[in-house]
Amino acid sequence: MMAAGTSTAWAGAMLAAVRAVASARTWLAIIHLVVGWFTGLVVFLIVVVASPVGIVLLPIALAGAPILWIVLLLSRLYASAERSRFALMLDVQIPDPATAGRRPPAGGSGCGTA
Q: 29 and 90 in contact (C-beta within 8 Å)?
């Protein structure tokens, strides 16, 4: 037979576990994963179809170059949307790698003159 204190502690642990599953942060993470799966699938299909088409059309008067350029542009826009989604749903800031390494020169015009 269990003591009354043991059953209360067990009930408190169970309540804490249920509270973690039902928290708003958990549901935001689940929504984040589901939305990420669907958007990732759409972008994957676009890239998998458009990239080979662009590569195949490159020898034909460079007709594939605009297609490949559009694929790269869409990939960059998708990455920006994904960073925004991470910031909104998970409160995680991911810097843009294209601009993260660029810093203005310290104390100069950047011409290389001393």
A: yes
Our CA dihedral for 75, 49, 66, 72, rounded to 10 degrees, sits at 10
Give 2-36 pLDDT, tens digit per residue. 555 567 777 777 777 777 777 888 888 889 999 99
Classify 74 in phi/psi space as left (phi over 0), alpha (psi -120 to 50) or beta.
Answer: alpha
- What is the model's pTM? 0.68
> What kind and span of H or E run contains 22?
none
Residue (of 95, 98, 93) closest to 72 by Cα position: 98
Residue with tokens 């989604």: 85
